[in-house]
Specification:
three-stranded antiparallel sheet, 48 residues, mainly beta
């Protein structure tokens, strides 16, 4: 998803969502949040 210029540097940024991600979940015990989702913000850059 296009997030626009989130950090105000004049470059567009990208926001990616993962609705079924397991944030803060221990892979060994399974304890934590299941399918809580996560969001990742990728900052724009002038360097390719």
């Amino acid at each position: 998803s296009a997030a626009g210029d989130v950090d105000g540097d004049g470059l567009d940024d990208i926001l990616i969502g993962s609705i079924l991600a397991d944030p803060r979940r221990d892979p060994n015990t399974g304890v934590g949040v299941q399918n809580g989702g996560e969001a990742y913000l990728i900052y724009g850059s002038v360097v390719p």
